[in-house]
Amino acid sequence: MKFDAAYYNRFYENPATRAASAEEQAVLANFVSAYLEYLDVNVTSILDLGCGLGELLHGLHQAFPNARATGVDISEYLCKRYGWQLGSVVDFTGDAHDFVICSDVLGYLSDRECAKAIQNLANLCNTALYLSVLTEEDLDICDAEHTDMQQIARPYNWYKTRLNKHFVAVGGGLFLRKPLRATVWRLERS
Q1: 132: helix, coil or strand?
Q2: Which CATH number is 5-188 given?
Q3: What ranges do the domains of the chain cover?
């Protein structure tokens, strides 16, 4: 897959074909930041692996203005345009962060790369992870005109098995790193 200007124009910038608007990303950032605050997660550093245009990262950095925010993307085009660090969720290295974001990236990886990426997310995450990925079970509800259907749609259980080794799902795409430092009632876990 070529993550060039044409790709980002289609799925990010063109209002007729984009997957999500800046406004939708702002709403998501508000939700995620409010939930993290509710869980009393102290966010001093944010790492977005596959940050794209950076709208979610920007919104979360506004919610946590004192946090150090790092954007990483595999697209040389975006790194030049926005100043992100060039890298992949599969093998990016660095210090662990309080909060890690990986939105709509894992579906572009082979099974082997994806398993390595999930392990790497665990290595880079101290406390909380926001993860979004198209699963096989989502195919009947996703908007195929605004979703890149060249992704690999793995079964939900494929992800669940690998994520459960390191994280507890708490809903809304949020996962907390094991062992839990926050009190999360059983019904709040997904």
Answers
A1: strand
A2: 3.40.50.150
A3: 5-188
Q: What residues have CB less than 8 Å from 161, skipping those under 6 apart?
A: none
Residue 168 near residue 178 (C-beta atoms within 8 A): yes
pLDDT value at position 15?
62
Sheet containing strand 85-86, edge to edge, reads: 85-86, 68-73, 45-49, 97-103, 125-132, 174-177, 167-171
**One-letter identity of residue 3:** F
Contact 90, 117 (CB under 8 A): yes
Chunked into runs of 10 residues, the chain (190 residues) has average pLDDT values of 63 59 86 95 96 92 97 91 95 96 93 97 97 81 58 89 96 94 83
Return the percent helix, strand and coil in the chain, to nearest 5.
Answer: 40, 20, 40
* pTM value surpassing 0.85: yes
Residue at 51: amino acid letter: C
